[in-house]
Amino acid sequence: MKIDQFPEHIRPYLVPRAGGEYAYECFSCGREHGIERLLYTCPDCGSVLMIKDLEWSRLKRIPGSLWREIFDYRSMLTLPALRGIYRYHELIGSVIPPESVVWLGEGYTPVVAANAVLCDWAGCAFFFKNDGQNPSASFKDRGMASAFSYLNYLIGHRGMEDVLAICASTGDTSASAALYGSYFVHGVKSAVLLPHGKVTPQQLGQPLGSGARVIEIPGVFDDCMKVVEYLSEHYSVALMNSKNAWRILGQESYSYEIAQAFDYEIGDLAVFVPIGNAGNITAVLQGFLKLHDLGIIPALPAVFGVQSEHANPVYLYYLEPEREKRRFRPVTVRPSVAQAAMIGNPVSMPRVVKLVEEYRLRAGEDAVRVVEVSEQEIMDAMLTANRNGHIVCTQGGECLAGCRKAVASGMQAAGRRAVLDATAHALKFSVFQDKYFSDSFEPEYEVVPKAELRNAPVLVSPPDGVPKPVPGREMPPEDFRRFLAFASGAVAELLGLKRKQ
Ligand SMILES: *Cc1c(COP(=O)(O)O)cnc(C)c1O
Ligand SMILES: [Zn+2]
């Protein structure tokens, strides 16, 4: 729709202008640092940073009801820069002018209702928000869009040049960083570090296809992360992991989209998110807090983090009910089908601790919970979801398993609706479905396939004497008729088809 067709009172707010004053904020020592250079840790105390809008109170001058209208009307604009996460420009980095925004189709992912069978299985009515429908097929694109838009702004307006964008990854961060990096005509190259043998073939193929330098490191993600942290401290590189606070800003859009999808009435929702490096749950909590602070949502939804028993440091931390007694201890991870979340020492833990505290202060102790699920539960949940019309990955399965557990244990009231984060597309993690169907899980995974969830192709193979078609060779019509009679008969028998009268 053209600008002059919008209601008059909305027009001045439709296309945002660059503005605002931002700083890196350290959650540990409280100090602030300028954003004119890329910082990943606090120069004073070494802790992770968040990005703070120093003029946040100016946004409060606009009432919540008007913000809701602005965001809703903006979704009718055809301006590419505002088609994705920057529809919420004022909330996620208004210093970036719209012309610096890099939009590759991320954001605005569908919220799909589960059918009656699946809701029954979970114990409550729920929806999957399909972040696997982002361009690199995971939610990481939300954060990459903002981190790369900021780089683009630094290149275009601050004279930054020859950027080497680098990241460690459990697979999806590198796929996303390589995709966004490859879009730049000049100024940006990308390199990704992966734990050797610990990403799926699809995830390895993605950065290779985008033309990034792909480097494999022995060990697990946590080891790769240490290497890129060292590199980012000692060399001139742009770190694209969620340690980079610009990533968090973009990922907050996930919360904004949920609010918008439910007409901003989300006080009765429970939102389930898998936890790996804990960047996503940081962004989700921060996103809802910002909406609440501006009066855009009248009440906060409950947020559940979900972890596998094989990579559960955040779960263990919150097992201790008394805040003062909690001690964070990294864990040594074991092989997990939720491989994208197989992280024992989440970089964002200090952010999580701070935000959970604030969230609970505003919405009550029960407003944030962490649940733990088994590898078996993750696989069974993923397969059950996908047999009911979804396309969720193992981490999406992890969310469903977590939701089911939360209902069964009474943490999630059966009457409350849930939104589950389907963080990536099923196809990225099809190796785990293959292992399940062929009963070939290594014992460490502790997954035993259930017969009713397995599936395999059936080959119709003509016996000797019945001719078979061979690609590239023409078949005599009589031979083909014999093959057709045999194959159709075999399929009809397999499917138990009834003859037409
Ligand atoms: C990265 C990732 C996660 C974990 O998110 P964190 O921000 O690291 O906690 C979960 N699922 C998928 C598919 C991912 O790519
Ligand atoms: Zn600090």
Automatic annotation (TrEMBL):
Keywords: Amino-acid biosynthesis, Lyase, Pyridoxal phosphate, Threonine biosynthesis. It catalyses: O-phospho-L-homoserine + H2O = L-threonine + phosphate. Its cofactor is pyridoxal 5'-phosphate. The keyword Lyase applies. The modification N6-(pyridoxal phosphate)lysine is found at K140. Residues 103-416 form the Tryptophan synthase beta chain-like PALP domain. Its EC number is 4.2.3.1. It is an enzyme of class 4 (lyase). Pathway: Amino-acid biosynthesis; L-threonine biosynthesis; L-threonine from L-aspartate: step 5/5. One of its GO terms (biological process) is threonine biosynthetic process. Pfam families: PALP. InterPro entries: Ser/Thr_deHydtase_PyrdxlP-BS (IPR000634), Thr_synthase-like (IPR004450), Threonine_Synthase (IPR051166), TrpB-like_PALP (IPR001926), TrpB-like_PALP_sf (IPR036052). GO terms for molecular function: pyridoxal phosphate binding; threonine synthase activity. Belongs to the threonine synthase family. This is Threonine synthase.
